[in-house]
Write a structure and sequence with these properties.
Shape: elongated
Oligomer: single chain
CATH topology: Immunoglobulin-like
Organism: Parerythrobacter lacustris
CATH superfamily: ApaG domain
Number of domains: 1
CATH class: Mainly Beta
Pfam family, one: DUF525
Number of strands: 9
Number of helices: 0
Distance between the termini: 21 Å
Protein name: Protein ApaG
Order of helices and strands: EEEEEEEEE
């Protein structure tokens, strides 16, 4: 997978970077299934130690159907990030259309237990023309 982060958003010193790639070997266009993998890097540029608690995704397919996904942590983890640290993970998204998008936010807590939201940038999911 290319490690080029195409999308980024910064909230209160915390940057979320996203690299997304279409996976033809996991897709079945003839069956109406397309699959992308995305690599997220969360960088703590704040002065506080923070912990990722929850995630909220808004996934939109090419027909405009919206699916909201909420859950604890990311891929089974709730990483603790000291100032200057980062956390990387990889996950995937299936769609029933060859185009769509994802965006959302993470909820972190700071050292005092205060929750705050960190934006996940909008990023498109687009299959190459030959996979449509």
């Amino acid at each position: 997978m290319k490690e080029l982060f195409q999308h980024a958003a910064t909230t209160d010193g915390v940057t979320v970077r996203v690299a997304v790639n279409f996976l033809p070997e996991q897709s079945q266009p003839e069956a109406g299934k397309w699959f992308w993998v995305y690599h997220i890097r969360i960088e703590n540029g704040s002065n506080e130690t923070i912990q990722l608690r929850t995630r909220h995704w808004r996934i939109t397919d090419g027909r405009g159907m919206v699916n909201h996904v909420d859950g604890e942590g990311v891929v089974g983890e709730q990483p603790l990030l000291k100032p200057g640290q980062s956390h990387d993970y990889v996950s995937g998204c299936p769609l029933a259309t060859p185009h769509g998008s994802m965006e959302g936010f993470y909820t972190f807590t700071d050292e005092g237990g205060e929750p705050w939201e960190v934006r996940i940038p909008y990023f498109p999911l687009a299959a190459p023309a030959e996979a449509e």
